[in-house]
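Exercise: predict the fold of this chain.
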Amino acid sequence: MGTHVLEIELREGTGKGAANRVRHSGLLPGIVYSRNIDSIPISVSYKDFVRCAETSRPSQVFSVKSSAPELNGKSVIVKDVQLNYVKGRPVHVDFQLLSDQEKVRIDVPLEIQGEAFGVKNEGGVMTVSTREVTVQCFPKDIPEIVTIDVTNLRLGQRIKTGDLQLPEGVELYGNPEETIVSVLTSRASKTAEGEGAEEEAAAGEDQEDKAAGDDKKSEDKAAGD
């Protein structure tokens, strides 16, 4: 996987006031952490981070350019982005520092290829349950994507996470029985979609009720870091 360069600098001061000053100067506050070091307060250009986020996959590895020797030339991945839920803008970012000697756990996008036999010849409907998979590997082995060929998938069949053909050195992390994609009858597909829509609607209502409080908590936590 190729790397993108991201300029990251050490951040002076912690707390809400310091974090707000960073944001007002066009920077995004955050931290860099790993298993063997304490969290390092940092800042990154807001515009550069958003640009990289819009053009990168979740599994993207970034090469750090920095005046800080402990960061310059290192590799990081994005582990968490805290958002202002009202405006949808990032307010804080967590980077994980990678080590060539330590495996990392990361979500990798799934890419579905082909037309399922059950859709083409048996009147089925293909349902995709997830579009990413969590894997564990050394940084050098992080895949950009994991592909799934559904050409031979027949009506009533499914592909599970345990069925994935992962690259050498990459291990599945999590439940091997989780369904990724399946071919169902149109009636079964509509039932599954209806249940999913109800769950999303309920989650959306809960999110709206919590939006104001969660936004404040997110910004306070980000400021504290």
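Check your answer against the key: The chain has two domains: 3-99, 104-201.
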